[in-house]
Amino acid sequence: MRLKNLRKERGITQLQLALALNLNQNAISRYENGTREADYHTLILLADYFKVSIDYLLERTDNPTYFP
């Protein structure tokens, strides 16, 4: 998942992202290193937060186009 790159591009920490989305920092870390997969609800939260498509997050496309 492209989560780590998106987070770093915006200059925020795992903790800041977790707090913004009401998630656990450990979960963010696990999503980034691939030891845990985000559920559907979390994917929506992440896509909305970064204003990208879920397909972009899941590396199914290189087009980050966001459709609200």
| Total strand segments | 0
What would the average pLDDT be, to the nearest integer? Answer: 94
Q: Summarize the main sheet.
A: none
Radius of gyration: 11 Å
How do the helices and strands follow one another from N- to C-terminus? HHHHH
Unreliable runs: none
**What proportion of the residues form beta strands (DSSP E)?**
under 5%
Structural shape? globular
Give a description of the structure.
With 68 residues, the chain is mostly helical. Helices cover 57% and strands 0% of the residues. It is built from 5 helices and no strands. The protein is globular and about 25 Å long. The two termini are 20 Å apart. The relative contact order is 0.18.
Note the topology:
Blueprint: H1 3-9, H2 14-21, H3 25-33, H4 40-50, H5 54-57
Helix pairs in contact: 2-3
